[in-house]
């Protein structure tokens, strides 16, 4: 997992491949300008989803991992917490679904506040969960970028 401030996106272009391309794309555009739904960056190699969701208590959301894509999460509006745990520390709840590129888990992790000035990158070994509340729930608008990884 990587977390940093948006003004430092350029420091991570060195990750290269689709992930580097996605970070450059994000840095070159006003993030608030993306419409709800899907936006192409590089076909199936990199794309972003803008979504609005209600936050939920951590106990109501499983952790998840992906094999094909790294995720970049950016909170645009509202307050959300992002959960993280090493995949090896969790108990699987489901088998891996190639169609959804997802496997879910239960267990404990650590939580970090999201915000309009921060981003998170989660790799396949990083179990994560978003749209988490630590108090009263609320609505968040966020970007989730999917960037294909080499050798998937």
3D structure, described in words:
- The chain is mainly beta and 152 residues long.
- The chain is 7% helix and 46% strand.
- The protein has 1 helix and 13 strands.
- A 6-stranded antiparallel beta sheet has the order 1-11-6-13-3-2.
- The mean pLDDT is 95.
Strand segment count: 13
CA-CA gap between termini: 18 Å
CATH arch. level architecture: Sandwich
What are the secondary-structure elements, in order, as H or E? EHEEEEEEEEEEEE
Largest sheet: 6 strands, antiparallel
Which oligomeric state applies? single chain
| Helicity, as a percent range | under 10%
Specify the structural class.
mainly beta
Q: How many alpha or pi helices?
A: 1
State the CATH topology.
Answer: Jelly Rolls
Write out the CATH superfamily name: YhcH/YjgK/YiaL
- Our estimate of the beta-strand percent is over 45%
CATH class bucket: Mainly Beta
Q: How would you describe the shape?
A: globular
Low-confidence stretches: none
Taking all Cα atoms into account, the compactness measure Rg is 15 Å
* Count of the domains: 1
Neighbour order of strands in the largest sheet: 1-11-6-13-3-2
Mean pLDDT across all amino acids: 95
């Amino acid at each position: 997992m990587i977390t940093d401030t948006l003004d430092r996106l350029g420091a991570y272009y060195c990750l290269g491949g689709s992930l580097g391309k996605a970070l450059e794309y994000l840095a070159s555009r006003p993030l608030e300008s993306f419409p709800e739904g899907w936006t192409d960056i590089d076909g199936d190699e990199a794309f972003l989803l803008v979504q609005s969701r209600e936050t939920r208590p951590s106990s109501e959301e499983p952790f998840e991992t992906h094999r094909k894509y790294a995720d970049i999460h950016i909170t645009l509006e509202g307050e959300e917490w992002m959960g993280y745990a090493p995949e090896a520390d969790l108990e699987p709840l489901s088998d891996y679904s190639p169609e959804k590129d997802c496997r879910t888990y239960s267990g404990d992790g650590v939580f970090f506040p999201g915000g309009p000035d921060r981003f998170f990158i989660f790799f396949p070994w990083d179990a994560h969960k978003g749209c988490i509340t630590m108090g009263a729930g609320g609505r968040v608008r966020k970007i989730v970028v999917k960037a294909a990884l080499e050798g998937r």
